[in-house]
Design a protein that fits this description.
The chain is mainly alpha-helical. It contains 10 helices and no strands.
């Protein structure tokens, strides 16, 4: 499920550097060289991850990141399914995930900008850090920008793919059921939060996996940069 999913080249590079950075520096590669290679790999990796998540079913058919109803709407979902409105609920969930997939396209240029602004110190701290230090760097550097970029896209996407209509339908149906507390969660904000969760989820998963098994992920870029190891 997670094969070739996210920052494969970049995070394999992180692992190699984190364990052998001093050896590299001693073999003719400067800190600038190492971080330049890291940036190049990370650019390619984040592009692959956002392409994966922005593809049709990138969210919807992936149980790890699939966007379901907000927690406060769980009771609404159960009540609607019991009342025979399962198809309407399923349509709303599909449309919400389509909106998340649409918004994921906005992530790549924001990641690229954060990577471009990465300093040598940032890069070496990542290399010497924990098994999710790269993820933490991107989260710190991009979350505010990603949210600002995702939210309007999510709002437009919810309308474009019919999610707003589907959501309004199920909320309206639920609010007509006697003796139920009326609800109407903020769907755009919720979907934006879940879309961002999906993006960073796979960055973290792949970072951990590749640090644990860098040899299984090596590619031509790594061999070129670290051919002297």
């Amino acid at each position: 499920m997670i094969k070739k999913l996210t920052t494969v080249a970049a995070l394999a590079l992180f692992f190699v550097l984190s364990t052998q950075a001093q050896g590299l520096l001693g073999k003719g590669l400067s800190s600038d060289d190492i971080v330049a290679g890291l940036k190049d790999a990370l650019n390619k990796g984040t592009q692959k991850s956002t392409e994966k998540l922005s593809a049709v079913d990138g969210f919807f058919k992936d149980a790890a990141v699939k966007v379901l109803f907000p927690p406060e709407a769980a009771k609404m979902e159960s009540a609607l399914r019991r009342a025979g409105f399962g198809p309407q609920v399923d349509k709303a969930i599909l449309d919400i995930n389509r909106a998340a997939e649409d918004a994921a396209k906005s992530a790549a240029p924001i990641f690229i900008n954060a990577i471009k602004n990465m300093s040598v110190t940032d890069g070496l701290n990542i290399l010497r850090g924990s098994d999710t230090s790269a993820t933490a760097y991107l989260r710190r550097s991009t979350t505010a920008q990603l949210y600002a970029a995702f939210l309007p896209v999510i709002k437009n996407s919810l309308d474009k793919v019919g999610a707003s209509s589907s959501w309004n339908t199920v909320v309206s149906l639920y609010n007509k059921i006697p003796f139920q507390k009326r609800i109407n969660p903020d769907l755009p904000a919720y979907t934006t939060d879940k879309a961002l969760y999906g993006v960073f989820f796979y960055v973290a998963v792949e970072e951990k996996n590749i640090r644990a098994n860098p040899a299984g992920q090596a590619d031509a870029l790594l061999k070129k940069v670290f051919g002297g190891l």
